[in-house]
């Protein structure tokens, strides 16, 4: 058995923090969001994605400020495939970002939302004819991915009698040192023009007046934490840029560098790991020490590029990944002979990354547990209401929790909440429990004040989907949650909602955006009827 010291305040980031055992997103207690969902008219109450608007803004500004400091023409491009919620896209647009797209519908959405067409990049190794024509018609940049894509683009330009501005996506055979499914820039990848093919492509372009080569592009993969691979990519692309310009391609202007800068998914992992595992190197070394920061990536690239080059930077998930949690409800707890399980209503249909890549997402209770072990429990590993094999559980008492239970009976309304410094933790206003801004500001990551100690055991955190691969976390050291308790799955802003599905006929959940003490729905959850709208039944 291990114990978890639940300090008065712990910061997961600038905008997600535990206060007295309760998780706050900005100034909003996520338990209040749970209460709102329960009383809403939505057919699907849980799980729910909760975003921090100010975390997204902070991520954007980190890059924008760094790019301003290098005295170079540069554009920050957001990869829409990471998360295509229009509310997220509007935040990117309003702060000067453009977008990199991989489908025609993404392009249509970008145009509808008012992104400047000349700064949009249409990428993809398998573009359809209509997608290319739309990009050419609207004056977007296109990445040429290979020989047949070049022929498609030439044909589209001739049909439209319009010039296309293109970048050549070159595969530089640089290992990004990430999961093989996330690697895009090595030999054998389906993406890009390999070096031995370049002369053939370049020769064809010399004789095509309707296709103007304006730059080169390289994308190495996703979840990258080794800054040196960005430097190598910039150096390789600078060489190709100079060669093309010297050989007569006078429209050369851009170097477009992609590869998602990884976020440190494991930065809080030691909180829910067994003590025997807490020396694991990946969980001990903060991402900042590897220079995998906006400053690190921009500096590495900038020093390799000539002054006249205009940089298009695509930093991937680092703009959105850490800005959301999945709030998921505990359905029950199972104790087997070999493993114990926390079964929640969230699953691989909302967060597929663990099942797809073996990826880690941090998981924590969003509230203190009130679990009581009842006598005569039929589960294996339990006898007379007591867990064997040193898994004894105690009831956790907490006056704040008892007060919160009473607050849950307060009528909840989904309204804008304006906080002031007179509002304290534990008070409910207009249906949302909100925090004193000064309390949040003064909250330190590790507080020396008295702590509550809860007994914990190792759990598999799994969903209800009919697949053995449906899990959200392995071997997590957590306090036993009560039925109806909620857990937060962290860092789900990127490649979660955009990769979600209706498998097992599960509805996609609601998405909520928190801005200080204000909360709004930015995606309604699926209902039974909306899921059937495209069928004739």
Automatic annotation (TrEMBL):
Gene3D superfamilies referenced in this protein's UniProt entry, alphabetically: Alanine racemase, Lyase, Ornithine Decarboxylase, Chain A, domain 1
Keyword tags: Decarboxylase, Lyase, Pyridoxal phosphate
UniProt entry tagged with the keyword Disulfide bond: no
CC cofactor: pyridoxal 5'-phosphate
Residues annotated as the enzyme's active site: 466
UniProt cross-references to Pfam families, sorted A to Z: Orn_Arg_deC_N, Orn_DAP_Arg_deC
Any one GO MF annotation of this record: diaminopimelate decarboxylase activity
GO biological process per UniProt: lysine biosynthetic process via diaminopimelate
Modified residues (N6-(pyridoxal phosphate)lysine): 81
Domain Orn/DAP/Arg decarboxylase 2 N-terminal residues, every copy: 55-319
Domain Orn/DAP/Arg decarboxylase 2 C-terminal span(s) in chain numbering: 448-493
Protein role: Catalyzes the first and rate-limiting step of polyamine biosynthesis that converts ornithine into putrescine, which is the precursor for the polyamines, spermidine and spermine. Polyamines are essential for cell proliferation and are implicated in cellular processes, ranging from DNA replication to apoptosis.
UniProt similarity note: Belongs to the Orn/Lys/Arg decarboxylase class-II family.
PANTHER family, per the entry: DIAMINOPIMELATE DECARBOXYLASE, GROUP IV DECARBOXYLASE
Name assigned to this protein: Diaminopimelate decarboxylase
Biological source species: Dreissena polymorpha
Taxonomic lineage of the native organism: Eukaryota, Metazoa, Spiralia, Lophotrochozoa, Mollusca
